[in-house]
Each structure stands twice: as structure tokens, then as C-alpha cells.
Design brief:
Elements lengths: L2 H16 L2 E2 H11 L8 H13 L3 E5 L3 H10 L5 E5 L1 H11 L9 H9 L6 H29 L5 H29 L5 E3 L5 E3 L28
Antiparallel strand pairs: 1-3, 2-3, 4-5
Helix pairs in contact: 1-3, 1-5, 1-6, 7-8
């Protein structure tokens, strides 16, 4: 399984843990909620869904009312299929949530993992955030060293582009520092998850959750190409 297909399977399982959905709803949520999936098609999603069904992690159900299901063949339209997470699928997703290896904080996977931090335990969140920060600090050091070696050979526009890339990484490191300090301060309150288990609050302010940020300083996009 490729890294990108693994990220997609993780995201699909996470969204379906919240509630059953049909393919169109899933695609819309992936496009609007998870930046890493801004440009992907049904041709990518449906093979993923079929794989998850074959693995026993999802089941397919007929959507809509019974009358709509009966009328679909007569009208020549296919009945809408709703995908639901199975108990095995939930267990598999929770296993994926607990993983803190390098894949959890690489560029694309980190964006997907962060989107489901509300369902992730605090100790795992901390390890992922610290791993991401360490990776970016290493990247920043290499970028600075490269710029120091090549500065005299670069024209003004190339130099400005490299500076822009460095600033993007520096901004994400500052954002990660705020998140890590917030976690260490224990400001992540728990609230009920859709399935009744514990879930962490993501609200800002003194009541708990993420640090409050100013509107003119939005969080960096972990999938931004300039931060790579």
C-alpha cells in the first residue's frame, strides 16, 4: 500500500467514525476539511472504499428511504450506497491513531493526523507534535546552511523565494511550539465523542484546548509546498 493511499484510508475511516456517509458526502468532507485531499477524484476514493469493505472495516448499506431504493432500478439510477464503519474498522482506526512513527509527522500524513487530534489521546498528540517539530527544525537548519552556501550565486527573486520557504517553516515551528505548550499545560478538556468515548475539546481560550491565535496570524498549512 502506498503512503498516499494509506493516508486516504486513515482519513476515510476517521470521517466514517463520526457518522455513516455516502461517497459524495465523503468526497466533499475530504475536499473541504482536509487540505491534503484538495484535488482528488472519485476514481481515487471508490477503489479505497472497496478495499476497506473487502478488509471488513466498512459495510455498504442502501441509503435513502425504502421507496427510493425500490424506485432506483425502475428509473435507471443506482441506489445510493452508504458506508458504515464496522467494529473491526473502529478498532483498526484506533490502532492507526495510536501510531507515532515518522509517517505520523511527515508533511501529508501530519495534516490528516492533526485533523483527527480530537479523537487522539494526549500522549500520542504530544509525540506527534514533538516529532513534527523536530523534523521541521532539521529541515530549517539544512535550508539555512544551503542559503549561506549559495547566497552569492542567487538572483534576487530566487533568494526571496528561499527566504519565503524558510519563513513558512519558521512559522509552523512557532505554531507547533504553542500547541506543545498548550498540551503540556493540560488545557485539553475531554468531551463525548460521537460514539460515546472520550474526545478532547478543541476550543480555544482559558476553558481549554488549542491556544488562541490572532486573526492576522493563521496557522500554517502542514501540506503547504513552501514548507517542504
Amino acid at each position: 500500500m502506498s503512503r498516499r493511499s494509506g493516508i486516504l484510508e486513515f482519513a476515510v475511516l476517521g470521517l466514517l467514525r463520526e457518522s455513516p456517509m455516502h461517497g459524495y458526502e465523503l468526497r466533499k468532507r475530504l475536499n473541504t476539511s482536509l487540505g491534503v485531499f484538495r484535488a482528488f477524484s472519485y476514481g481515487t476514493l471508490y477503489p479505497c472504499l472497496k478495499t476497506l469493505v473487502a478488509n471488513g472495516w466498512l459495510i455498504e448499506e442502501s441509503g435513502g428511504t425504502p421507496e427510493e431504493a425500490l424506485a432506483a432500478p425502475l428509473s435507471g439510477r443506482r441506489a445510493k450506497i452508504v458506508y458504515r464503519l464496522t467494529a473491526e474498522g473502529k478498532e483498526h482506526f484506533e490502532e492507526l491513531l495510536s501510531q507515532t512513527g515518522p509517517d505520523a509527522y511527515e508533511d501529508e500524513h501530519f495534516a490528516a493526523r492533526f485533523a483527527f487530534f480530537g479523537q487522539t489521546s494526549r500522549d500520542v498528540r504530544m509525540r506527534v507534535l514533538e516529532g513534527r517539530r523536530s523534523r521541521l527544525e532539521e529541515r530549517l537548519e539544512k535550508m539555512r546552511a544551503s542559503l549561506a552556501r549559495t547566497r552569492e550565486r542567487l538572483d534576487d527573486y530566487t533568494l526571496e523565494l528561499q527566504r519565503h520557504g524558510m519563513e513558512s517553516v519558521e512559522r509552523e515551528v512557532r505554531w507547533l511550539n504553542e500547541l506543545i505548550e498548550s498540551e503540556r499545560a493540560g488545557r485539553g478538556q475531554q468531551r463525548p465523542a460521537p460514539d460515546g468515548s472520550a474526545q478532547h475539546d478543541s476550543t480555544s481560550g482559558e476553558s481549554g484546548g488549542l491556544p488562541r491565535r490572532r486573526d492576522d496570524n493563521p496557522p500554517p498549512d502542514p501540506s503547504d509546498d513552501t514548507a517542504k
